[in-house]
Amino acid sequence: MLYILVVGGDKRYIHVIETLAKLENNLYLIGFDTVSFDKSNVKHAKLEHMDLSIIDAIILPIAGTDERGQVEIMYANGHFYLTEQILSSTPDHCTIYTGTANDYLQGMCKAAQRSLIRLFDRDDVAIYNSIPTAEGALKIAIEETEETIHNANVCVLGFGRVGKTVARLFHAVGANVYVVARNHADLARVTEMGLTPIKPNRLHKLLADMAICINTIPSLAIDDERLTNMSISTVIIDLASKPGGVDFVATQRRGIKAVHALGLPGKTAPKTAGRIIANILMESLKSEQKHQ
Ligand code: NAP
């Protein structure tokens, strides 16, 4: 039985809280005022009234904090800033869980000497999470285009965990899938999957014929120059986390529809995505306990 503080999070975290509560952990929630839970071991909390010295783990949203330590709160009013002082008020063994972590969050945990676990660093989590992400991208593609995905030319940039699942899903629904990758082994795998491999230096030419262009590369992959060749009927779906991989100022100027589709698992399949996070959290909490 652990004392866990959950600070912020989206719809996925409601499932996470319910799962952790079933295991008889004591949960304190900040940022969930408008959601009610019917278990007595789940309590809404205010930081100023909390005894942080009993907290074994702090669970942050997938994005962790912003560059000033602010944690995104969706189900309550007000702001929450995670500080070094808060972390230092927890016991030495208190572990901080997040999906991803920027330099600020990493630095703060280091300064407070608290261990930080980034759940999305794990390959298995990223792969499971790519499934609702790809389904969300398909949903957007269907909604934003006026023709079927079947037989549409779809270009997928990047062939990592998300890129592979996106390419496979669009291929499965009958799209003509082109995958842009820089790595030779990836290009070979693309060919093996029956898709068309494209080297980055050939992307410029290819873009003219694409109905949908899906970016998964976490750096500027579709810049103003690459847009020059793109038809205004092409729909761009950028899946890369902030700041993304598309020059959105240029797409707007050129009248090309571009969607920066973030947090898709939480939007399209919050229960499945919540289950993925809950499973990995339970495993991680158990293993941390063993080491204490
Ligand atoms: P990943 O497994 O690391 O794959 C990234 C891919 O991008 C790889 O193919 C990599 O190629 C390529 N790449 C990276 N930097 C590049 C560069 N400078 N030029 C060309 N190619 C480059 O990452 P992932 O798990 O697929 O995630 C991709 C992005 O999606 C991340 O930003 C992630 O945070 C985001 N994401 C978004 C959602 C959502 O809901 N929108 C959900 C999950 C993940 P190499 O292998 O050759 O390096």
- What is the number of domains? 2
Strand order of the largest sheet: 3-2-1-4-7-8
State the end-to-end distance: 14 Å
CATH architecture of the largest domain: 3-Layer(aba) Sandwich
Pairing-aware structural class of the strands and helices? Answer: alpha/beta
Determine the CATH superfamily of the largest domain.
NAD(P)-binding Rossmann-like Domain
What does the main sheet amount to?
6 strands, parallel
CATH T-level fold name of the largest domain: Rossmann fold
Describe the protein's architecture and organization.
This is Dipicolinate synthase subunit DpsA. It holds the Pfam family DpaA_N. This protein is an alpha/beta fold and 292 residues long. It folds into two domains: 3-121 and 270-291, Rossmann fold, CATH 3.40.50.720; 130-261, NAD(P)-binding Rossmann-like Domain (Rossmann fold, 3-Layer(aba) Sandwich). 38% of the residues lie in helices and 18% in strands. The protein is built from eleven helices and 14 strands. The chain has helices at 11-22, 84-88, 103-112, 123-144, 161-172, 184-192, 203-206, 224-227, 248-254, 264-268, 270-291, and strands at 3-7, 26-30, 42-44, 57-59, 70-71, 80-81, 95-98, 115-118, 153-157, 176-180, 196-198, 212-215, 235-238, 257-260. The strands form three sheets. The chain has a six-stranded parallel beta sheet, sandwiched between helices. Helix 3 (103-112) links the parallel strand 7 and strand 8. The chain binds NADP nicotinamide-adenine-dinucleotide phosphate (NAP). The site of NADP nicotinamide-adenine-dinucleotide phosphate has 24 residues, from helix 4, helix 5 and helix 10.
